[in-house]
Structure formats: C-alpha cells, structure tokens
C-alpha cells in the first residue's frame, strides 16, 4: 500500500475503507537468520536497513510491549546535528542526512520539520564555546550561525532578555535542526521492514539468550525459544538487564528523563529553543501544545515516571526564560528510561560472544540517531565490519580509556551530561 495525495483524496471520498494495517503482526517462527531484541526506533530501523541494504529478510524484531511504547514514543522529538566531538560529529551528521530523505525513502509522513534550533548563551565564555562548536559543525559540513542578542530577539522576542541571573547574550542557530512526529518514525520503519519480509512480533519478551561454545544460538522468549545465528540487543533503558542474560555487565546506568506538554495554544514558538543554563528546552507541536523538558531525575531507576522536584525545577526554568508560558496549563507529563554511558556517547559494537551485537547508550539523544543508528548497526550485523561514521562507538573504550567521547566535558559520570 503506497501513500500519496491522490490516495488520501480517494479514500476520503470513499469512506476510508481501503486502508490496510501498516505492518503484519507476525507469529514467531522456530528460526531466523537474525533476531533484533527491542522494537523501538533503533531496533526497527536496524531491521529495515538489514533488509534494504544487506538483503537480509529472514529477520524477527521481538518487542516485549508494543511498537512505539518505549522511548521512541516518549521523547520530545528534537532532531539535530550540532555535536562537536570527533565520533559523534560525523555520526549525527550522517543521521541528519538520512532524516532529510527518510519520508521519501519510507513513503511515510513522519512530519519532519526543520524549523531550526536556537541554543541560548548567557556569558562571554559560553558564547566562545558556541563559536567553537559552530565552527566544528561547519567543518563537518553542517550548518551553524552565531546570533548576537538582537539576532536572537528577532526570532524569539518573547524571551526575558534582561533576567538578572541569565541575561541573554546571543545564541547558536542550527537551521537544519527541528522536530518530527516520534511514533510515526517507529510506524514508518516498522512498515518498511515488514514490507520487505521482516517479522514484527509484539508482546514477546526475551527472557534469556542461548550461547554455546562462545557462539549465540538464539533466544528464550515468553512465546517460546527461537533460534538465530545473529542477535542484536537494542533495548535502550533495559540494555543492562538484557545484556546480563548473556553474562555481560555494561557501563550503563538507567535514569529517568521527564517531559511535559501543555494544552494546545495558537502558534507562538516556531523554533526549538534550548536554555542550557536552566536545563530547559521547548518547542511547539503541530497540535499547538508546548512540549518541554529538562534534566534527568538524577538517580538510577526503571520507573517510567518522574519525580515532583524535577517537575518544579523544569517549570521554574521555563518561566524564568519565557514568563508568558506561566499562563499555559500543563496537560500531561511522563518519563522514559534512559541508557546513560559514562561519557554520554553511544555504543554500537560486537560483543565477546560470536554473533551477538549491541547498540545502546543513547542517553537522551537517541531519537535523532534513529536512522543513523539503524543504518550503522545493520552494517555491522550484515557485514561484520564497523560503519565508518559509527566506528568510534566501541564498547572497550570504557575498559581501556582510549577513545572516550566526553561531549559535555563533565567527566565519567553517567548522570552529568
Ligand atoms: C522524555 C524524553 C525526551 C527525549 N527527548 C529526546 C529528543 O528530543 N531528541 C532525541 O534525540 N532523543 C530524545 N530522547 C531520547 C530517545 O527517546 C532515546 O534515546 C531513544 O528513543 C532510545 O532508542 P529506542 O527508540 O530504540 O528506545 P525504545 O523505544 O525504548 O526501544 C527499546 C524497546 O526495547 C523493548 N524491550 C526492552 N526489554 C526487552 C526484552 N527483554 N524483550 C523484548 N523487548 C524488550 C522495550 O519495550 C522498548 O520498546 C528523549 C527521551 C525521553 C524519555
């Protein structure tokens, strides 16, 4: 089933009776060439690119809940390529290019909107740091513009520019950054993979990983044992638990990140605005809700909900930056389980078990990575070789200390970047 304007028109005129389910809800087979554990954005995009780029179609994606129920459907949807460290810089640049062709590639409307991101600065030192970051982004082939105070005012006149503690000095504008409809990204990849023969199996929790003589043989699930010579672990906040099934102890802590949305209001915020000093960022959804968030809850947890002190902190930071939002009513808040590495950068690698691969550690930046991560992880699983833009995401950097990518220069502590 292909989507097109003509199809939407025809369906609209004939009672919308011709739409079919977007992907097959498959039953598990006894054996596959490859199994992907986790039907989040990264798992689904991995399956899609394994099928599309590497001709592997005898694949199952095993999801313990439902497609889109994890962080891929819980995030605040910011997509950008404004990283600075070698390793992250080329990876996110590649991922953003995939975003720019994704809707055509998948024939699916993910509402990708390149409305621009503005990171605000509040001191000379911070402006210097942004100038350096902007130069690195340009050197990587991405876009960056340093705005002075009046430059920011032109785009965001409603901010409090003269706040005593955080007066606005300027900002870094990344025009190709923006937002997307998060669950549509999961559905689009699920549909694309399913159309190429991949089995998407929901309500199927992996409870064990079978290993013999150092080689992976398959998995145990709540729907029975399934054999496979290749298994990819892509379970975000549950990475530590699932890797433990293969006897691994990962350098990952799981922390909660919250997000909030207000009632729908008229269009007012047409960029993504990030207020790093206050740990606050905001955008406006196409339905009109103000979508915003802040920092981690700061203690390890597997609860998909957040704590009240962090809610208070985020609201206070928001009102400090743009007092007008104090009038908006918050409709909902939620939390997601973040897989935090010590250096804030991800892992895409083989493991010591032959045929067992891992993709995790996306911290709070993994939505923008969905296409790039799937592309690179599929390359690794399909060919056995690292894909160049993700070649630095090695697991052993935490053992050897070589190749640490400390993006925020906060040192090796999981909850500080
Ligand atoms: C509040 C919030 C805001 C965020 N904002 C942004 C943002 O603006 N921009 C950005 O880039 N990133 C953002 N992120 C981060 C991003 O959402 C994640 O890094 C990314 O979605 C994680 O990858 P995923 O989509 O594959 O994870 P998930 O969707 O969580 O997928 C993992 C899946 O594995 C399944 N699973 C777990 N254990 C098992 C098992 N034993 N068997 C089978 N299946 C299993 C889970 O049910 C889940 O569906 C945010 C996250 C949160 C929570």
From TrEMBL:
Nucleus as UniProt keyword: no
Matching PROSITE patterns: RHODANESE_3
InterPro entries per the UniProt record, alphabetical: FAD-dep_OxRdtase (IPR006076), FAD/NAD-bd_sf (IPR036188), Rhodanese-like_dom (IPR001763), SoxB (IPR006278)
A single GO molecular function term of this UniProt record: sarcosine oxidase activity
Principal location class: cytoplasm
Presence of keyword Nucleotide-binding: yes
Enzyme class per UniProt: oxidoreductase
The name this protein goes by in its record: Sarcosine oxidase subunit beta
